[in-house]
Design brief:
Layout (H helix, E strand, L loop, with lengths): L24 E4 L2 E4 H5 L15 H5 L1 H11 L2 E5 L6 E5 L2 H9 L4 E2 L8 H8 L4 H7 L8 H12 L4 H5 L2 H15 L4 E3 H6 L1 H11 L6 H12 L5 H27 L5 H7 L9 H32 L1 H9 L4 H11 L9 E3 L3 E3 L2 E3 L4 E4 L1 H4 L34 H18 L4 E2 L21 E3 L4
Parallel strand pairs: 4-10
Antiparallel strand pairs: 1-2, 3-4, 5-7, 6-12, 7-10, 8-9, 11-12
Helix pairs in contact: 9-11, 9-19, 11-15, 12-13, 15-19, 17-19
Length: 454
């Protein structure tokens, strides 16, 4: 490819799964890596002690994480590119330490390298896409992060989100109206995806006549692009998405409405406003982050209930248990498996290992939430678990801003689904279920279900 740009979403964390190789750089975990490193080490011939990217791993991830917690809780091995050394952290204690310590573990590579070092190591990024998609709060630390978060945070307070309950319930009901007479559906495409994408689109004030196009764009953000053809396709899709946002913002400037997008354009906090780059980057972040986690949450939770009928019976008999059940679903099969990849800013000891300035580090939330040292009977789905100190939405400065919305969507989706279709069952053999090849999210490709039409 002739163009280079910094991809806004990383390859091994929430917004870190699109590994796009460019003519000069690869963005891996939000950190660009010279392409020459990749070309010299073919992916197929590279061995890792723990294979964390294969189909076999995705079918058996929690057993692998259990081995890592027991034997190598802080472990450095090659990442997806087959060359770059990355620390993988799997125990709850160390994962929490990384998430909370934003002095030693940072997102912004500019805090670790100066401009000259960055250009020497990473090359130059495509300025257009970099400014359109990458300049958001997930890639910032310290005061820069707090500033951007404060400018959008008011739209996601628990009170604001709770006021959305009636509309979310209506959307869930309308989605089931379309399929209830059929006696079957593919739950991800027919319910788990359209519910949160409709909610975030309405919140932002974005028309989504073609929901599938948003799904294609989102997938370009979060799915690793390995071959030259995949890289080119992803690059073109992101250009297309950026052009769409430009047109959308230009129209809203001329015709403001009572929606979040208009609010972002005119938002002001203590005299501060989003600049053009921050506006477009924040919009892209909200569109993608605003639905991907909830799609995974709903799909994983429904699967867990279908595989644990005694738990399902409890919440059907007492729907008031659903909010606490959602917390357990978040822990038991965390929708975000690997959160924001950090860069070590200063040398530090973690779990008895010495990490050096510039090292890459991935704390694995999905493993931490199954750590028996923190959660008794961690591999058991227990909707009465108390305390339930899961870290499914992260912790510390980068705690998920949309957590209240994701929780509400998950609660409503499960309640409405099982009220309307109490005899829901799998329409596929459990061993035939497949998980998306996206390192960030623990997310099903499809979830076919069936019931008796009424």
């Amino acid at each position: 490819m002739n163009n280079t740009f910094v991809h806004p979403i990383d390859s091994d964390s929430i917004f870190q799964c699109a590994t796009l190789w460019k003519s000069k750089i690869e963005l891996y975990n939000g950190v660009e890596i010279p392409l020459r490193q990749i070309e010299e080490t073919p992916l197929m011939t590279t061995a890792r002690k723990y294979e964390l990217y294969s189909h076999e791993f995705r079918q058996n991830s929690y057993a692998v994480f259990g081995q890592m917690r027991a034997n190598d809780p802080v472990f450095q091995q090659m990442g997806l590119d087959g060359t770059t050394q990355i620390w993988f952290i799997t125990r709850y204690a160390e994962v929490q330490q990384v998430l909370l310590d934003d002095e030693h573990f940072v997102r912004d590579s500019g805090l670790v390298y100066n401009a000259e070092e960055r250009e020497k190591i990473f090359g130059k990024a495509d300025q257009f896409l970099d400014s359109m998609l990458n300049n958001h709060m997930l890639n910032k630390d310290g005061e820069n992060h707090r500033r951007l978060r404060s400018l959008v945070g008011k739209a996601f307070t628990p009170k604001v989100i709770q006021n959305m309950r009636p509309r979310i319930e209506m959307i869930a009901g309308e989605l089931l109206d379309r399929v209830q007479g059929n006696g079957k559906m593919e739950l991800i495409s027919d319910f788990a995806f359209p519910l949160p994408i409709t909610v975030i689109a309405e919140l932002l004030g974005i028309p989504i006549h073609n929901q599938n196009q948003f799904r294609i764009w989102s997938n370009a953000f979060v799915r690793p692009a390995i071959s030259e053809e995949e890289q080119q396709a992803a690059f073109l899709l992101l250009q297309e998405f950026a052009a769409y946002m430009q047109k959308l913002v230009a129209d809203r400037r001329l015709h403001p409405r009572d929606d979040l997008l208009s609010g972002l354009i005119h938002v002001e906090e203590a005299g501060d406003r989003l600049n053009e780059s921050e506006l477009f980057s924040m919009l892209s972040l909200l569109i993608v982050a605003g639905h991907e986690t909830t799609v995974s949450l709903i799909g994983n939770a429904v699967l867990a209930l279908l595989q644990n009928p005694e738990v399902r019976e409890k919440i059907m008999m007492n729907p008031n248990l659903i909010p606490s059940a959602v917390e357990e679903f978040l822990r038991y099969d965390s929708p975000v498996e690997r959160p924001l990849t950090r860069i070590v800013k200063e040398d530090i000891t973690l779990g008895g290992f010495q990490l050096k300035r510039g090292d890459l580090i991935i704390p694995i939330i999905g493993s931490a939430n199954r750590d028996g040292a923190q959660f008794p009977t961690a591999d058991v789905l227990d909707i009465h678990r108390k305390p339930n100190s899961h870290i499914a939405f992260g912790k510390g400065a980068h705690y998920c801003l949309g957590a209240p919305l994701a929780r509400l969507e998950g609660e409503i989706a499960l309640r409405v689904l099982f009220e309307r279709i109490p005899d829901l069952t799998l329409d596929i053999a459990p061993e035939e279920l497949e998980w998306r090849d996206v390192p960030t999210f623990r997310s099903l490709v499809q979830l076919p279900v069936k019931w008796t039409p009424r």
